[in-house]
Design goal:
single chain; alpha/beta; Rossmann fold; 9 strands; 30% helix
Length: 230
């Protein structure tokens, strides 16, 4: 399986997804928008992985590549590709599918529980998850659920934590791919976002523990294994 990563900033890469791909012998290519890389041909990829970033989907004046990226994501979905969007990546999927992306009531930063919605346990990839799990978050925006997609997870801070479409397009507001190195990169580059708030942890809590990181990564691998078999 050929993975292609859409990366928006240098400090948010594919993290544990890259480790999973390397272990399985899957090639990984990338478009690093921050250094002006071109987009690939859709025929050259099997799984599109869309990473996070501190910008918003509507920040095209500052980041003009966002418009082309959104069209590319829509094209990949229309072409039947497998797609994972994480945080900003999930918001870009929603935007590409015509849903509204906007400021969430609360900024959510740190390790917080996510719940699988009652009745959604049969919606892929929800069967791979426990009823409640701890995930890493760093976001201030949210989205409406696109037409035809199914919302399957929520948190206290954000009702729209995840949706899926056709069993092959997965949008996660939370981060399962995160590593200690990735969290450190966010703290170094986005520390100004750590204002007071009911769902913003302090730096020590945000760094988490090896067990929290390993638990998130284990869930990420289950999702990737599912998409590989799909």
């Amino acid at each position: 399986m050929r993975l292609h990563v859409l990366q928006h900033v240098h400090f948010e890469d594919e993290a544990h997804i890259g480790a999973w791909a390397a272990r399985n012998g899957f090639p990984v290519t990338r478009t690093a928008f921050y250094r002006g890389d071109p987009l690939p041909e859709l025929d050259d990829i099997d799984l599109l992985v869309i990473m996070g970033g501190p910008m918003g989907v509507h920040d095209e004046r500052v980041h003009p590549w966002l418009a082309g990226e959104t069209r590319f994501i829509g094209g990949a979905i229309s072409a039947g590709k497998r797609v994972i969007g994480i945080c900003l990546g999930a918001q870009l999927i929603a935007e590409a599918l015509g849903a509204r992306v906007y400021r969430n009531r609360h900024r959510e930063i740190g390790w917080f529980p996510v719940r699988v919605l009652p009745g959604a346990e049969v919606v892929p990839p929800a069967p791979l998850f426990p009823r409640e799990f701890i995930a890493f978050h760093w976001h201030g925006d949210t989205f409406d659920i696109p037409a035809g997609a199914l919302r399957w997870a929520e948190s206290d801070a954000c009702p729209a934590q995840a949706f899926s479409l056709d069993g092959r397009v997965f949008a996660f507001q939370f981060h399962l791919e995160t590593t200690a190195r990735g969290i450190d990169g966010l703290l170094v580059n986005c520390r100004s976002e750590l204002a007071e708030g009911p769902f913003i942890q302090d730096e020590r809590s945000i760094m988490g523990s090896p067990d929290l990181v390993a638990g998130a990564n284990s869930l990420m691998e289950k999702v990737l294994d599912h998409l590989h078999r799909a």
